[in-house]
Each structure stands twice: as structure tokens, then as C-alpha cells.
């Protein structure tokens, strides 16, 4: 199936000469939830702003549902709903007037039945005659989503949808976003909360210093990059790791009561059987054991740090030459 968004060779150098995006290629699949992760200043907002036609690209090509964002700007923009990070609405307008107005901005014929559907879906229908100023923070966020959906876009961009939102509300938002996906909307979200990507995304893209360093199915990423730990609780604490086991990837907790064996998830042979056999040979007993997988957060930190190290090495080589 054709991707709903296709980005090729996208670059952006701002007027001052700063390059915020460098040769980005990315295809967004129809119906997926795609999470764009990256540290502050990585280029996430620049990328979204270009696709939404708010910022002009320096080079490259973007199509949204087949429409080129430059040659066919209006049609491309019609395909997209954008929920910005900041809540910006007229406080004295009613909820209903706000969504009706947003739809009108796109030149769409009125469709009260559709607006009712999205307000119900976002649990805002009861509040439709309320002034925005009377809504809670969570309701205002949902209203921003309703406004972004008012012209029936196929793609929804959510820029940091849950920044500064409490845990309960965050989970409500996740549920609601899944509901939108079920209704056929493709969702691209940027987030600083890796937990959010882990929870929600079908695929993850990591952007760092304007470069897309990785795009991967979330499950595959977690399998491929992840390390697992096998922890053994020892009835008798150890002073140190026995010399006979020194060649194994082991670590000992501070109080010596927990021995941790690290293994690579992707490796065919985890070495666990051999490890347990050798443990037995040196008469170390254990009370129980459990395993733990690395989180997307650890994977992400490793990736970004790895890329930074590579860049620093490259720079130091260049200065030596
Ligand atoms: N109008 C502009 N002129 C010059 N530089 C800009 C402009 N807008 C953004 N930048 C720079 O481009 C880089 C990328 O910014 P961008 O807002 O895309 O990052 P981001 O990944 O969205 O960051 P955050 O997570 O902090 O929102 C930053 O270094 C920023 O200072």
C-alpha cells in the first residue's frame, strides 16, 4: 500500500545558517501510530512544521496522501490535522463554535453530525455549549484535538500530546488516540516520554541533530536492541564474583545478595544453561531468579549516546588530520 506520507531528502537550513534537518527520508504507513522521539532541539517540530506547510523546506520532497505539499498545498493541508503543543483558543467561545469555526477555515461544508461524532468520541459532547474558559486542562487538550479533526483529516499530528499532564489523564489520552486509530486516522506524535512511545507506537523514529538515526517497528526495536538481565537472589551473599566466573558478563549488587547475568536477546545462544552449570560447579546456590528486559528508554539513551560518540570520534579524527 502507498504510504500516506512520503518524505524524501528533506533538509532545512534556517536563515541564520543553522541546519535543523539533514536529508531526512521517511515513509508513514496508512493507519499506523508513529512516534518521533528525539532530545530537545533535535528537529521534530521543524519536520512536522514542514509537512504541515508552516515552514518551508530548503530541499526535498513531501507528499501527503499523494499531494505534493508545495505544488498542491491546499489539498495536502486538507489531509492533515495538527494539534500544537500550546493550547490556543478563544476563551470566551463555546466548544461548539470553536470546532465549527475550525472546520470552516478549511472551506468544508457544515456537517453537524460529524462534529457531534468527534465531540462524543472525545467526551466533550456534554460540554458543547460551555465556554472554553470553563473547561479543565484535560478538556482543553481534547478540544484542541477536536478542532484538529474538525475538517476530517486522514492524518493527525500530535506535538507532545501529554506534556505536563498527570498520569491518569495521560492514560485517558492514550486510550483516546487508540480510538482515533481504530476509526482510521494515521497518527504521528512527538514525545519526550519514551514510555508513551513504548505504550502507543507501532513504529518509532529517532531523530538527533536533524538526522533520522533510526526507524523501526517498536517491537522489533525492543527485541533487537534490548538486553535482558537474569537476576539470581543468593541466600548467602558473595564478597566478590568468584574468579572461576570472571569471564562471564556478571555483576554483583552492592550487598552481594544479587548476581546479575546480562545476555543479548538477539543472540541464538543466551549462554544461560552454561552459566547455571558453572554456578553449580562453584557451589553457588540461589533462592529464586527473574528476568528483566531493557526498556525503550535505555535503548534510546544508548542510541543517542552512541551517535554522539561516533560524531565526537569523527570530529577528533578530522582535527587531527
Ligand atoms: N526559526 C528558526 N530559526 C533558527 N533556528 C531555528 C528556528 N526554529 C528552530 N530552530 C533551531 O532548529 C533546531 C531544531 O528545532 P526544533 O524546534 O525542530 O526541535 P525539536 O526537536 O522540536 O525540539 P523540542 O523537543 O525542544 O521541541 C533547534 O536547534 C532550534 O534552535
TrEMBL record:
SMART domains: AAA
One Pfam family named in its UniProt record: ABC_tran
The keyword Transport appears for this protein: yes
Domain of life, per lineage: Bacteria
Keywords: ATP-binding, Nucleotide-binding, Transport
Domain named ABC transporter: residues: 5-234
Keyword Cell membrane recorded: no
A GO MF label: ATP binding
The protein's name in its UniProt record: ABC transporter ATP-binding protein
Amino acid at each position: 500500500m502507498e504510504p500516506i506520507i512520503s518524505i524524501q531528502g528533506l533538509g532545512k537550513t534556517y536563515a541564520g545558517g543553522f541546519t535543523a534537518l539533514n536529508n531526512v527520508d521517511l515513509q508513514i504507513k496508512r493507519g499506523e501510530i508513529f512516534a518521533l522521539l528525539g532530545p530537545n532541539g533535535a528537529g521534530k517540530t521543524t519536520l512536522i512544521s514542514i509537512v504541515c506547510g508552516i515552514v518551508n523546506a530548503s530541499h526535498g520532497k513531501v507528499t501527503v496522501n499523494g499531494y505534493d505539499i508545495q505544488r498542491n498545498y491546499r489539498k495536502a493541508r486538507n489531509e492533515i490535522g495538527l494539534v500544537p503543543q500550546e493550547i490556543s483558543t478563544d476563551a470566551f467561545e463555546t466548544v461548539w463554535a470553536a470546532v465549527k469555526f475550525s472546520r470552516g477555515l478549511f472551506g468544508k461544508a457544515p456537517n453537524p453530525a460529524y462534529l457531534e461524532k468527534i465531540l462524543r468520541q472525545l467526551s466533550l459532547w456534554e460540554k458543547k455549549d460551555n465556554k472554553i474558559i470553563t473547561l479543565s486542562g484535560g478538556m482543553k487538550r481534547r478540544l484542541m484535538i477536536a478542532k484538529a479533526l474538525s475538517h476530517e483529516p486522514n492524518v493527525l499530528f500530535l506535538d507532545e500530546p501529554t506534556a505536563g499532564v498527570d498520569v491518569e489523564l495521560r492514560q485517558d489520552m492514550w486510550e483516546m488516540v487508540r480510538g482515533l486509530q481504530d476509526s482510521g486516522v494515521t497518527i504521528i506524535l512527538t514525545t519526550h516520554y519514551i514510555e508513551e512511545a513504548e505504550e502507543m507506537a507501532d513504529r518509532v523514529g529517532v531523530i538527533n541533530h536533524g538526522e533520522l538515526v533510526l526507524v523501526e517497528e517498536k517491537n522489533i526495536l525492543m527485541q533487537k536492541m534490548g538486553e535482558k538481565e537474569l537476576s539470581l537472589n543468593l541466600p548467602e551473599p558473595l564478597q566478590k564474583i568468584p574468579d572461576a566466573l570472571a569471564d562471564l558478563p556478571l555483576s554483583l549488587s552492592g550487598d552481594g545478595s544479587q548476581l546479575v547475568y546480562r545476555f543479548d536477546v538477539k543472540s541464538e545462544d543466551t549462554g544461560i544453561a552454561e552459566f547455571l552449570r558453572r554456578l553449580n560447579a562453584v557451589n553457588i546456590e540461589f533462592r529464586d531468579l527473574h528476568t528483566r528486559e531493557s526498556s525503550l528508554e535505555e535503548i534510546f539513551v544508548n542510541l543517542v549516546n552512541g551517535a554522539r560518540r561516533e560524531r565526537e570520534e569523527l570530529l577528533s579524527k578530522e582535527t587531527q588530520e
